[in-house]
Predict the 3D structure of the following.
Amino acid sequence: MEHIRMPKVENVWLVDRSSSRRTQVGTLYLTATHTIFVGKGSEDRNELWVLHSLVCNVVKHKASQSGYPLLIHCKNFQVIQFIFPQESDCHDVYISLSRLSRPEKYEELYCFSFNPNVGKAEREHSWDFLDLKAEYSRMGLPNKLWHVTPINREYRVCDTYPADLFVPKSVTLPVIVGSSKFRSRGRFPTLSYYCKENHATICRSSQPLSGFSARCLEDEQMLQAIMKSNPGSRFMYVVDTRPKLNAMANRAAGKGYENEDNYCNIKFQFIGIENIHVMRNSQQKLIEVSALRSPSMGEFLTGLENSDWLRHIKSIMEAGLFISKAVAEEGVSVLVHCSDGWDRTAQVCSVASVLLDPYYRTLKGLMVLFEKDWVSFGHRFSHRCGHLIGEAKEVSPVIDQFLECIWQLMEQFPCAFEYNEKFLISIHNHIYSCHYGNFICNSQKERKDLCIKEKTHSIWPHLWENKLDFMNPLFKPDQSQNQGLLRPSTAPYCFKYWRRLYNRFDRELHPRQSELDSLMTVKEETQQLEEELALYEQKMAVLDKEHAKTLYMQKGVLDSKQALWSLPLDTSLANTPQDYISGFIGGAPNVFTLQQGERESAEVCLYGDKTKSSDADNSDQESGVADFSSHSSGEESLPSEESVKDPDSDETGPNRA
Amino acid sequence: MEFAELIKTPRVDGVVLHRPFMPTVEGTLCLTGHHLILSSRQDNTEELWLLHANIDSIEKRFVGSLGTIIVKCKDLRVIQLDIPGMEECLNIASSIEALSTLDSVSLMYPFFYRPLFEVIEDGWQLFVPEEAFKDLESMTDEWRLSEVNKDFSVCPSYPSLLTVPKDIDDESLCKAASFRHGGRFPVLSYYHKKNGMVMMRAAQPLTGTNGRRCKEDEKLINATLCAGKRGYIIDTRTIAVAQQAKARGGGFEQEANYAQWRRIHKAIERSNVLQEGLIKLVEACNDQSHSMDRWLSKLEASNWQSNVKEILTTACLAAQCIDREGASVLVHGTEGTDSTLQVTSLAQIILDPACRTIRGFEALIEREWLQAGHPFQQRCAQSAYSNGKPRSEAPVFLLFLDCVWQILRQFPCSFQFNENFLIMLFEHAYASQFGTFLGNSVAERLKLLLSQKTVSLWSWVNRPQELERFLNPLYEPNNLVIWPSVAPQSLLLWEVPLQMHEMPKEHMDCEISMC
C-alpha cells in the first residue's frame, strides 16, 4: 500500500495507561487495514489489532526518556499509547496512520476488502436478513388508510429518503410533490411508526420552508391527511425538536416551523434538543472527563456537569417520552421534525418507538429499528461518524446518543430488554468500524449507487449468530401490565454516566464480577442439562417401547428402570423432577412416531417438542435458582435425595423450588 | 408517664395515605404509644405501621378543613396523610410531634415489643468476645483477653473484654489508655490469617502541644510488630486537622517516638460534616426543578460521593498494607468511634471472606460497631429531615453501608447477602422494635438491661423465614481478597435508601430468584 511508510517497527512499547507495570514491548505492524502490535512475551503472545477506520486521531507527544510516544484515540473510546525508540519510526508511523485512518474514497473502507469465507449467495442472503416490508406489515401496514407511494422509487422527489415510503392513502401525488418542495431537502412528512391498536402514527419530515410568512397548500393538506388517517383524534401534534431560538433563526433563511394558524388542528410544540455542533463539543468534554486518570470525585462530577452530556440525553429522552405518550395514551398522531430531519428526528422517533413497542426491545427489533429509522431514512452515517476525510463540522455523536438512551432505559427497566449492554456496545463499535457495509454512506441512494449490497457484508446476521452473547438473562417478554409502553422517569438522577461505553477499555474500572455473566452461565448450564435430559427421555422412550413389547417380563422392566435412574444422571438433573416426568410422558410417543417415519405425525412431534422445550425452559430457570439459593444457604448437596430415589412421587417439585 | 396523655385523638376515619410510587390508600388512622397505624380495614391491602421513633419531622398544611400532614422519616421515606377535620389534624400532628421526640430511652418501643415469633437463637448471646477470641487462639498465641476494662473505668466506650498483645500487662494498658482520647488504647481489630499481620484501632494519642509521649503506648503497639518490620499508622484525618488537634490536647504519633511506624494521613470528614452532606444530598434528591445541572452540582456539593470514595480508599489502603505489604496497621482518627470503625470494618470485608456471609457480617457489626462503641443512639437520633438542633447526629453507619454496597456492586457474586440486608440494617439503626442499636456503648447497654428487656435484631433476622429475603442468589463463596475500584467512574449513587425509585434493583433481585 502506498500509504504505508513503515510496515514493521521492532521494540515498540505498548503502554497500559492504568498501570505502568503492564507495559510491554513488541513489534508493530502496519497493514492496509489494521495496526497490529505483537507482544514479545514468551508465553502469552499478546496481540492488539486496531482497525484503521476506528482511529479517530493520532497524536505525537513530546519525547520522553523512554522514547517517542504516539497516542492513538479511537472512535470506540480506546486510547492506545506506543513509545518508539527512534524518532523517525514514530514519525513514519504517525504519517502513515494519519493517512490510513482518513480514507478519501469509500472504496478504501475496510468493508470493501473484508472478505470472510462465505459464498456469494450467502453474502447476498445476509442482506435479506432484515426486511423492512415485513416490519411495516408487522405494524399492520399497508391498510385501508396508509399505503406505499411509488413516488420516490427513483429517489427523484427526495434523494435522502428511501425508495418506499408510507403516506396516507388520501394524499395525491401532486400533494406529495408540493409538500416536498416546501420542506428542506424535499423531506416531506412520511410515516415512521404506526400504532395498530389506535391508528395513531409517528411521522417525520424536515422543517418547512415557511420563512416569515410563506405557506404551502399541499403541505397543509398533507398534514391534514395525516391527522385524518387517525380517525379517533381531532388534532395532531407537530413536534419541532429544536430549541425555539434555533427554529426562529432558521426563518431568516427561508426555513422555520409550522404556523399554527395555517394548519388545521395542529398543536405545535418545541422540544429543545441542541444541534449537532453542541452535541459534538459536549461529547468531547465527556470523553475528556472519562479519560481523566484518578480524578477526585469533585473533578469527575464537575466535569460531567460541565460536559452537559446527560442534560442532552435527558432532553432526547423527554422528547421520546412526550411522543410515545401522545401516541399510546392520547391516541394522537405526531409529526416530528428538526432542521433536516435526519438527526434529532431520527433520535426522537426511534426512542419513542422503543418506549412504545416491546418489539424494539428485542434483538431483532432493535436491528430493524436501526435499519428503518436510521439507515433507510438517511441518517448521514458517513458524515456523522467521519468515515471519510471531510468536514470535521459534520461529525456528531447523534447515534451514540440514541444508543445511550436505550442504555439509560435498560438501567431503569432491567427486565424489559431482550438484549444486554454488550449488544449496544457491539453495534456502536460496528457503526464506526466500517467492517460491514450497513452504516456506510449517507443515504439509501448512495448505498445503491455504490453497490454496497453487492460488495460488502451485512452486520445483522453476524450479530444474530452471536446472539447468545447479547442476551439479557433477566428479560421478561410479557410487559402487558402497561400495554408495552415504558414510562421512564426523567428525573435528573435517573441519568447515569455510561461507564461501560466510555471506559470500555479501562478494565480496572469495571466490576470484577458480572451479574450478567454469572446468570448467563447458569442459563447455559441448565440448557445443557436440559439437552441431556431430552436425550435420556428419548432413550427412556425407546426402552419403554421395548418394555411394552415384553410386558410379561415385569421384573426386567423394573430393573432397567432403576438402572436408568441411578446410572448416568447428573445429580443436578434431579432438580427438575416435574420436567422430567412431563417430558417422559410427552416424549415417548413422539419418538416412537418419528421412528415410524410418518410425515404428519412428525409435524405433530415437532410441535410437541417445541412446547416441551419451552416448558423445560421455565423449570430450567427455576432449577437454576434453586441451585443458587441452596449454594447460598451453604448446603453442599444440590439435589434432594428423595427426588433421585422416587421421581414419581415428586410431581410438585418445582413448586418447592 | 402514660402515652395516653399525649394522644388527644387516637382515631380518625377517612384518612388518605400517599406514598411515592404506590397507590393511595384510604383508611382509619390510629395512634398508639409507639406507632402511627393506617388501616384500610380490607383484606389484602397493605397497612402502614410507622414507629414514632422513625419520624424525623412533620409538616402541616391546611386547605379549608382538610389537613395534610407530611411525615418525613429518619429512614428517608416521606409520606403524606390527608386528614379530614382541622382539629383532628392538629391533634394528630401535636401527638406525633410529642411521641416522636420522647427523650427517655426506656420509653422506646423495644422495651415494649413482644415478639410474635419464638426466639430460637438469642441474638444477644450470638457474638460474644470470648467466642471470637477462641477463633483467634486457634491461629496465634500472641494475644490475650484482658479484663482491665471490666467495670468500664479504663475506657467507658470499650467493652469489658479486649484483645491485646500477650506481653503487655494490664497496668501498661491503663497507662496507654490515659494517653489516648477517651481511654481508647490500641486493641486488636483484625488478625489476617494469611500472613499473621494485624489491624489495630485506637483513638488519637494525647500528645498535646508539648509533644507528650507514653512509653507504654509505644511498647503496646510495637509489640505487634515482627522483628525488623515496620508498621503503618493510618490517621483518618488530614495532617492539618491532626495538627490542630494538638491545641486541644490531642495529636498524632511523633516519628521520633514511633520509629518503627510510618504514618499516613487520609481525609475522612468528621461526623458533623457528614451530617451536612446527608442533608444536602437529600435536598438534591428532592429538588423539584428537574434540572440536570442543578442535580449534578448539588450532588457534588453534598460531597456524599467524595466521602464514600475517601472512606473506601482508606479502607483499601489499610487492607493493602496488611495483605500486600505484609505490615501491621494501626487505624485511628480523633475519638476512634467513627471514621476509624468505617475503615477497620471495610478493610475486613475486603480481606476476610467470612465477613461477606450473613453471619460474618453480623459478627462484624457486633464487633466493630456495637462493641467497639460507635455511639449509635447519638448518631441516629435525628436524620436528614430533622428541624431539631443538631447534636452529634451523623450518617457514619449509613456511609459504611453505602461503601459495602459499592463493593457488593463490584463483586455481585461474593456476598451471601443482598442489598435488602443493608437497607434493613440502615432502617433498624434509626428506628427499630429491637434493642440492638439502642445505647452508645456496651456499658450503656448493660445498664439498660437490653439483653433482658428487649429482643435482639439478630434473633429475628436469623430466622430462616426472614433470611430468605436477604440472600443473594448469585452468591458463590470467594476466598480471595477483593479489591474494589475507587475511581469516581466506578462508584455509583446508592439510590434505594434515598427513596428515589420504586427500587428497580429489588425488582431485578426478585426476577433473579424467580427465574
Notes: The two ends of chain B are 53 Å apart (CA to CA). Chain B has 18 helices and 14 strands. The mean pLDDT of chain B is 93.
